[in-house]
Amino acid sequence: MRRLSLSSRLALLFAACTAVVSLFAGVLFSRASEAHFIELDQQLLDGKLIGLRRALQDVQPAQREARLADELSRQADLALRITGSDGQRWYDSSTQIPTELPKQSGLSTISHDGADYRVLNAPLYPDKSDTPQLTLLLDITHHQHFLQRMQHLIWLTVGLSALATALLGAWAARSGLRPLRRMSAVARGISAQSLNARLPEAQMPPELAEMAHSFNAMLGRLDDSFQRLSAFSADIAHELRTPLSNLLTHTQVTLTRPRPLEDYREALHSNLEELRWMAQLVNDMLYLAKADHGLLMPKREALELADESDVLLEFFAPLAEDAGVTLSREGHARIEGDRSMLRRALSNLLDNALRFTPVAGSVRLSIVDQPHAVQVSVENSGEEISAELLPRLFDRFYRADPARQEGSSEHAGLGLAITQSIVRAHGGQIHCESAAGWTRFVIELPKEA
What is the pTM of this model? Predict the structure, then answer.
């Protein structure tokens, strides 16, 4: 079954609300009119009752009928029955009076032969116990016809109001939902080539402005992600093209003519280096893919960061000595984390710092134990990185030095991206600062997972 549109739902809701309100108002008006007529009839019958009592008081029996006829002639729709205390009927002013009438005192309503009557029973002499009973009948058929016509009018008004409200509600809902249709049109037109389309937030009503803002923000994120994905694919192709080209060229040259066994062995060793580089690149990409999907699950073990840092500094000491760079470490702290992952992250930062530190420069590793987190920073002296490049340092395959197009897998522009993934897997954050001749990478790790 097809679902109703939002415009149709709003139109039906408006119609239902209008019908309920109209019906409620009509019922109240009908009840109020009926109560008003009952009150008027009560006043009329009470007045007639007083007049009849006066007409029958101190009157000879022979003159009673004449006095009653004279009194009743002033009200054509009024009839009278007098019943004795023994229940015997004494007098009927009309032959159309029903045989059976209510006997309880007070006002009541009956129907007889298509006519409606208001009946009032009262004693002729209220101060006596054994007294005849007066029964006044007032023909209220015209009242009832009026009330019936009014009820029909109420139902007609309710139906027409609901129909008119449904039509006007549909028009109003369609007009009010025009921004949503515009949003839908923009969404239908979104493709890989038109992710820069945006909704005009200034023209949106306040209720939809926030949705439009969120929609535009989503498009912005999609556009940025798509651009990054496109650049990422191009970077992968670029990174793999050179080693593949080298492998093809070297293999083709080797096979152009018969060669000694030693030449084939040397060619295979050369190809092996390229294959190792490609394998490492693929492994790094798989590692980052696991990080993107939240599949990096670090182990939790107690680590002394000072000891772990000293192990890495000892490993990099020969490289630093050859480059004329001084390595140092200060501070200590304990943390729970994955030893191999954190070593890899710090190793990437130290390797990056050594490559960009000039001769006679220095690389410092600092550990600061804070109340709720541990701050680890790796800083090196040397040329500063411009502020506009700092946010892109952790992008995959991004290299601040565009002249460097080749190198090992660890220099392919994935080291910082892998470091960021490891830090985030531990629930931490990493950022870079560069000023006053120093470049500093700062890692903040929570003490508790």
Answer: 0.53
